[in-house]
Design goal:
10 helices; mainly alpha; 434 Repressor (Amino-terminal Domain); two-stranded antiparallel sheet; single chain; 2 domains
């Protein structure tokens, strides 16, 4: 049992460190500008740590620890603390945890959607068709599988293989979350949610160049 726990800790250690470092960096960046714009000088003001502590109902010591770039390993906020900080800074707590890799995937997703909106090539039309099928499907699982189909077509590679089981899991999970979040919205939102969820779910894709079916390598 102890051996299994140690193995799990090793597997997630890199992600844990990446999120810790990103959280501290995001919090520092947000605090530096959260004081707003000075009405006299027009300069952006930082929010003092004492003010952030007061607004978030946290102690000065906690805020100091969470905003220390010297030792990000001490940054271990619980969900309530994240929500308090998010409320104080007027940002979603989820974005406080966003890593550079997450932002990169999000930008790729937006770029892909823009290309799908503006282009009329054969590849683009097929991808749009996949997304529309996801929107029209009444079967939740079949709709989610469209996210996997979308990524396979976008990269022109099969993902339904045992060696890509982890990628499949991420794509399906993120597609399900994205689709579920907009299920009561219009067809366009549901269509784009499938694309964004699928691309964000393919986290391993950052370990190699991203092929661009519009003619360039990203």
């Amino acid at each position: 049992m102890a051996s299994e726990r140690k193995n799990t800790e090793r597997k997630h250690a890199r992600l844990y460190a990446e999120v810790q470092e990103s959280f501290v960096a995001n919090l520092i960046r947000a605090r530096r500008v959260a004081g707003g714009v000075d009405v006299k000088t027009g300069d952006i003001q930082q929010m003092q740590k004492s003010q952030l502590a007061s607004e978030s109902e946290l102690s000065n010591g906690t805020v100091t620890k969470l905003t220390s770039a010297a030792d990000t390993q001490d940054a271990k906020p619980d969900l309530e603390t994240l929500c308090k900080l998010g409320y104080a800074l007027n940002v979603s707590p989820a974005f406080l945890l966003m890593t550079p890799r997450d932002w990169n995937l999000l930008l790729q997703a937006f770029g892909t959607i823009q290309n799908l909106t503006d282009s009329n090539g054969e590849d683009e039309r097929y991808l749009v068709q996949v997304l529309e099928e996801a929107t029209d499907s009444q079967n939740v699982n079949e709709s989610v599988k469209s996210g996997l189909k979308f990524v396979e077509q976008m990269h022109r590679e099969p993902y339904s293989t045992l060696d890509r089981a982890r990628q499949q899991m991420g794509i399906l999970a993120m597609t399900a979350m994205a689709q579920g979040s907009v299920k009561l919205q219009g067809a366009a939102s549901r269509k784009y949610a499938t694309a964004i969820g699928a691309i964000l779910g393919d986290r391993e894709v950052n370990s190699k160049p991203i092929p661009d079916f519009f003619g360039e390598t990203q």
